[in-house]
């Protein structure tokens, strides 16, 4: 299982508060947290500043699941990399979209909607409730998951109706949010998971890591169907024989 | 538009606290609240104690939308009436399932699951958030709807994934609940709406009534498809010509 | 109800066979066919060759439902018009996507997938079967609808799982296709309907017109929710009060 | 992985034509066909005539996936066994519902609808098309699967909208059918698969067996969530701490 963790990696270099929480960068913190939970997984990281944002064709072709964290610089992701990632998802690569990446180009491209939401930075307590207990992404996690302090993300969240809704959050302010959502797009599996604001050490929370490791396993599809989706043959009457 | 409001009508006769809130019974309170919002609607009521629970064949055949409130006596609803109501839903009658009727025989029959949930009577504040703003059932209601005090209903709510999720609630205790859920069953439309505990005057809340009147309009289908669902003809090869 | 019928209008001007079938253009044929079925509707048409493809901001702002037919020149639709149409759908305009417009920029933008499919031009007989009889788009149409000769469109059709599946087609060659699919995107309703190849007079078939008139009524939403989807306010704790 | 194959086992004992095709009974034919495809699986069979129809409490408690074939004697399945099987599905047992078992008590109980359909015995050729190529149940199967001769099952099929639609069939007569449908009910996974009429040797077709072995793996859930669905505790405010 080959996993690439992508991070725009700006907050951690510019904001002292974030630097203190994630001195190694969110991407490396995620690798460190996920490695013990995912046997037989190979990790690599990639960031915005690298050539091709660290996502050349061969990098993506050998990636089974891509995690994506971005916030300040969605618009700096190049058209070329956007196309490449989008295309790989449609051909079977798993994609885990994290927190503020709800506004990333690739997530909006896959959803077709604005992907907007309401938010507030006010140290709300967030509780994530499993609404689909038998879903593999919820396996073995606390019910509910408690984040003592987190950014509030609230409805209305402008996404298509998820194929499967796994988690719904409440916040101290009384808001709710569909915080764990599964989508099938082409041959790829996409999971949006809202925890992960840069000013809280959320990616060291054991249940958050448990969810993410479950999600990676769920999104990883070792065998990709050969049924073609990318061509329109002028099929002969009996082509299927 | 012909609407029947069904109520088991036990709490209001036995419990002084409930009697004070709904001296006329929940069924008549609902009619009183909905009448001004639904022009061209004819209302009738029916209760458990009546012959056939007030739901004879002709009563149901002439009903476009049935509202159902029950709590203490789900098991006193007869097999015959259960079959009749179920059958009418599959043939196109709308059904609005209210609050504790999540455990009613007809709702469990239509869902196929336990329909169980968590609950607490502790004067929680409930906020109902629209997660599908353009849904006709959410038209013109506050965002969120606030119930100052209500019984807590919490996840996990054991229902099939709703065809459309309209409202999600939060409670003072931090719980969440899928409080407004649409289901298509056969030719009938079913809406589950959780507000309505008997010890709070919820059915006089203008937004609750607005939701219910929207739901009645949504569930009412004046013309029923003639495509047969209840027979299995040994169809000839060209029967469709 | 204000309806705009958009057509790239190339086949009808270049291909004598198509010219004979639709001398007035597919857009005007659609208006002619739909007018008697939709009382109180105002129609206008728009084509690729017009300035802004006939879809200036004010044109779209006053459109309740847009029908879209395109085939040869998807890539000639400008970025600006694409953004404008997409944005209007997310804010509540209905969109009916016709036949080869499965590959239009706006449909692919809304779906997030390749929207590809298999096809064959071989005078197949197509039968469209209602799999959701009580859906308003299926009201009053034959079961099945028969198109004596039509282009074959076959699975796998690379779209997200539809929110509601209304029609499934079979073809003489044995293929099947999800030929009538509903999607909610933002506040807008989208219906994809596959009949309409330019070399067959499909848009004069009474059942096809019946479906389209039903779809226009279904997609038309006179009142648009005021719940904001396009902004992310840093909501104060009690903003909802 | 413990698999129980249930069969009413009447046709094979009474009808010489069926006896010739399945002299050992459909249940044993299924075991024979599936064994080579499912390593580490233990099979047992059960039939209507056995005590408790071969489905005592301990039999079901130790079953991970139950396959169910029935046709003539749905109404002879006892209330007790119905409750037991239903309950086990809600608590996580997988269920594969085969062919004419669309009218079995347990499937109708789980669906809440009539589960009726149209049918014809006329040696139609059936083609099963994958409409969800990356679904694990479709892995490695031909596209389409061809059954040279089979009973026609046609729409409208009165089921709730499937959570995932995997296969759609066409028939020589031009009909279509949603022939492979996934449902989540409680903690259990349910797959309906229409091939399997008793007068054709369908359960020896390699692709049918491939689909069934995939479905068994998909429906088998080794670890069941501890989140309770069957009780309604009067939860204290901070019960989740």
Structure description:
- 4 copies of one chain form a homotetramer.
- Chain A is of the alpha/beta class and 241 residues long.
- The first copy, chain A, has a domain of 152 residues: Class I glutamine amidotransferase (GATase) domain (Rossmann fold, 3-Layer(aba) Sandwich), CATH 3.40.50.
- Chain A contains 7 helices and 9 strands.
- A 9-stranded mixed sheet of chain A has the order 2-1-3-4-9-8-7-5-6.
- In chain A, helix 5 crosses helix 6.
- Chain A is globular, with a radius of gyration of 18 Å.
- Chain A starts with a strand and ends in a 22-residue tail after the last helix.
- Chains C and D meet through strand 5 and strand 7 of C and strand 5 and strand 7 of D.
Helix fraction of chain A, binned, reads 10-25%
Strand order of the largest sheet of chain A: 2-1-3-4-9-8-7-5-6
Mean of pLDDT of chain A? 94
Total helical elements of chain A: 7
User: Could you say what the CATH topology of the domain at 2-113 and 180-219 in chain A is called?
Assistant: Rossmann fold
Secondary-structure element series of chain A: EHHHEHEHEHEEEEEH
Question: Layout of helices and strands, plus pairs?
Answer:
The structure is a homotetramer of 241-residue chains.
Chain A: E1 2-7, H1 11-14, H2 16-21, H3 26-34, E2 42-47, H4 57-61, E3 65-69, H5 79-90, E4 94-98, H6 105-111, E5 118-130, E6 145-154, E7 164-171, E8 176-185, E9 188-193, H7 206-219
Parallel strand pairs in A: 1-2, 1-3, 3-4, 4-9
Antiparallel strand pairs in A: 5-6, 5-7, 7-8, 8-9
Helix pairs in contact in A: 5-6
């Amino acid at each position: 299982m080959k996993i690439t963790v992508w991070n725009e990696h700006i907050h951690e270099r510019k904001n002292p508060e974030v630097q203190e929480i994630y001195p190694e960068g969110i991407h490396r913190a995620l690798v460190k947290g996920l490695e013990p939970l995912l046997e037989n997984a190979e990790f690599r990281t990639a960031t915005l500043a690298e050539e091709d944002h660290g996502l050349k064709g061969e990098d993506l072709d050998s990636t089974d699941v891509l995690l994506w964290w971005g916030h300040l610089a969605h618009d700096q992701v190049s058209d070329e990399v956007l196309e490449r990632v989008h295309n790989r998802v449609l051909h079977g690569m798993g994609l885990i979209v994290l927190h503020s990446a709800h506004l990333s180009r690739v997530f909006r491209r896959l959803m077709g909607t604005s992907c907007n939401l309401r938010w507030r930075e006010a140290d709300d307590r967030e509780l994530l409730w499993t609404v689909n207990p038998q879903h593999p992404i919820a396996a073995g996690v606390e019910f509910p998951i408690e984040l003592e302090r987190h950014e509030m993300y609230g409805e209305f969240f402008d996404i298509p109706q998820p194929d499967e809704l796994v988690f719904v959050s409440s916040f101290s302010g009384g808001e709710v949010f569909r915080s764990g959502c599964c989508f099938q797009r082409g041959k790829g599996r996409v999971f949006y998971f809202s925890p992960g604001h840069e000013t809280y050490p959320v990616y060291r929370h054991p249940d958050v890591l448990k969810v993410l490791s479950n999600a990676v396993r769920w999104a990883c599809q070792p065998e990709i169907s050969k049924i073609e989706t990318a061509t329109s043959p002028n099929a002969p009457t009996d082509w299927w024989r």
